[in-house]
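Technical note accompanying the year-one report. For the benefit of new consortium partners, we illustrate the data format agreed upon in the data management plan: each record pairs a sequence with a structure-token string. No post-processing was applied to the example shown here.
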Amino acid sequence: MKQITVVGSGVMGKGIAYTCAVSGFNVVLNDLNDEILAAAKKDIEGLLDSSFRGGFLKEETYNFAKMNLTYESNLGLAAKDADLVIEAVLEKIELKIEVFQKLDRICRPETVLATNTSTMSPTEIGAQTSRPSKVVAMHFFNPVHKMKLIEVVKGLETSEATVEFVKGIAESLKKEAVEVNEFPGFVTSRMNCLIGNEAMNMLMEGVASAEDIDKAMKLGLNHPMGPLELADLVGLDTRLRNMEYLYAALGEKYRPCPLIVNYVKAGRLGKKSGKGFYEYS
């Protein structure tokens, strides 16, 4: 393993790139243009600086990450030498397939292609490439540098060698991996979407305030975050896309709450927009 390329520099892409870099990998972060990447670089270097000042990173690790994390808007240049590519673009199956088809043409035959999807099918994505045995889902969690889990999701054609390879990467990133056979929503997203959607329905029905619903889940069921806080952190637009996918795949119990539909229409996307179920300065 020499190089990991991360495609997409949103919240998850930045987190994955940071985590891979501080774990000793050479990392190339790719996005559509240099302006987007400049903003991502500012955020990642800010996290590196604060982690170093706070004593969470040794000086050697800090310097390595800064030197070996590069930013490249040309996908061909970013991915041609990668041993592993982790895609972290929007949760839209058409977009993911387009990215994977490009990567399939660019990357060496032995390169493993992973999607950081929370719901979508690695089988469907892999089938659009010439290497379905080397396509897998690596579902990271936000914030990536703190959360300990990676769901490793096998598509129908994913080889055991590919699964073992990405489980080894997870271990190098100091993460725990769980192996999941593909089914819509995997393990965590199916549960999370149900809990979050029910919390939204209760808020809409006036059962309790957002604060009290979250407090009940944290203090009564020992959840580290309330479901509405978590939805704001993930992004309500992202959560809605996940719900719509699960609703189409698994049926009525995943029908999105009308409240989240209206919030997304209004631009209340959660923490990233400054307002969701809560307001953020």
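Partners are asked to follow this layout when depositing records. The beta strands are 3-7, 26-30, 69-71, 84-87, 112-115, 135-139, 149-154, 176-181.
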